[in-house]
Amino acid sequence: MGEYNPDQDVPDQSAHKNSSGMPAALFAVLAITLLTLLGIGTRYYIHGDINAIHCLFSLFFSTNLLICYWEVCLFIRRDYIEKRTRYWRGRQRETGRIPAPEFLSTRVPMRRILSPTVWADVWAAYSTIDPAYSDHSTFGFNVDIGNGFVTPVPTLILYAAYTVGFLPAVVAGIIGAMLFWQWTYVSSLYWVSFFVAGGHTRITRGEFYTYVAATNAPWVICPLLGLYISVRLILESNYSVLGF
Hints:
The chain is an all-alpha fold. The protein has one domain (13-242). Helix content is 69%, strand content 2%. The protein has a two-stranded antiparallel sheet. Helix 2 (52-76) packs antiparallel against helix 7 (152-164) and helix 7 (152-164) crosses helix 8. The protein is globular, with a radius of gyration of 19 Å.
């Protein structure tokens, strides 16, 4: 895989070893790790301990913040995604493989590491699994745009509240209950819409579990736990459920 070039017809496979830049997947992992460690380190500095539930939600909130950026890219590069989807479908016919791993292994020059055009390719590659993301009228397309623009602020509020307890526990619980219920409902409904649209018939069972079930499961499982935590925060009016 060569250096990222959104207008290329076929990636230069021979350039893999010599190309500069960072693999897209590595950047995503590093960004999430740094954001997660920021929350864990801050809590340890202030409270002198590490809490498993807090660690889990630091990871979840950090991941959602990165996904939100990708979802903003989905909106502002929506027309470009339609073009790139055709490219990735051609790559899929050529290689016989789902394009997502190929995109994630692509090296992105550091000067373009935050380019919306680069990260719009996440959705173009995923459109070979679910065409909804190259169709502006679909549920999946529009609900993810909504998540990208609406949830960063409450995510940051809960990230800080779970770390340092700067809000009254009841307020944090109410914000959490609203946000976590939205994630649980919408993510579950996305699975339903995928089946209703016949998406499962276009891919193998393994591809479904890897790229659809597994990637969306955290936005159901973690929010369900988040709902429990939110109820505890509201009823107990303190942060004991988070260990402080």
